[in-house]
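Can anyone check this?
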Amino acid sequence: MKAQLVIQGIGPERVLDKLARAHVPVLAARRAQKNAVVLTVAAKDCKKVFAILRGSCYNIKKVRPLGLMRLKGARRLFSLAAGAVLAIACVLALERRVLSIEVQGSGAYYEGEVRAILQEGGITPLSPAPTQTALLTSRILSLPRVSFASLRFEGGVLTVLVEVSDEEDVFSPAPLKSPKAGVLEELVVLRGTPCAEAGQQVEAGQTLISERVTYGEREEKVLVVGYAVLLCPVEGVFQGSEEAALEAARLAFGEDAELFSEKTEEGWRIYGQARTEISSHMQ
C-alpha cells in the first residue's frame, strides 16, 4: 500500500534529505510547483513523515492512498522435493539482487549520469536491491531540467524513470559562497564539491560549494545544487520600549533569532545570533 503526499514550503526538495536522514524510503518524487513537491511513500511510513515534518516550515496539503490491499486466501500444496525448494530459494535470492538497470523516460539521455549516481550510492549489478531511495532520487532530481524521478525494483530489474521539463533553462556553473561571516550550521550538497563543514567558522565571500567536480583524473564544472544555513552575529540599536525594540529586531533579523537587550543612551542595543539561509538552484 502506497500513499501520495503533497508537501509545500520553501525549498521543498530539502524534505527528501530530511527523510533520507530519518531512513524513510521515498518511492517517487516530482515537483508540482516552485514551492511544492509530490512524494510517494509506503502507507506505513506516513506517520513517520508527519512526525518528521511536525513543527517545521513544511505543510502536508494532501494525502492520497494509492493501490488496494487485497487479501486472498488460498490453500498451498506442500509436495515439492528438496531439490525444487532449493532451486526456488536460489531464484528468490537472485530476484532480491540488481541483475540489470534500465533508465527510461524523456530524460533517458541522462543514463550515464544516473548510473554514476547509482554507483556512488552502492547500486551496481548483483548488489542488494536499494531500500533507501530518497537521496538517490534527490540527486537525480538535481540534474538540469529533470522534473520527475522514481526508482522501481521488480524481478531483479531496477527501473529508473527520469522525466525532463519542456522549459529550456540555461545556467552558468558558479560556486555557492557565504554572503557574510558566521558559523556554518548546516550544509547540504546535492551537486558540486563541499568546501566547508558544519560547525566551521566561515568568512564573507568564502566558497561553501564549488562548481568544480573531479571524476578520476578529469575535472568538470557542474551546476551547483545545494543549500547552507549560517549562524551569524547581529546587532542594532532600536527605539521605544524594550518589548518594542525586541519586536523590531525580530522583524529585522528573523523570528528565530536568539536576541539579547541592553539599555544604552541611544536606545536599546539588541544583539545576538540569527540564521541566514542561502541556496543554489533549489526553489
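Reply from J.R.: I decoded it. The CA atoms of residues 97 and 128 lie 5 Å apart.
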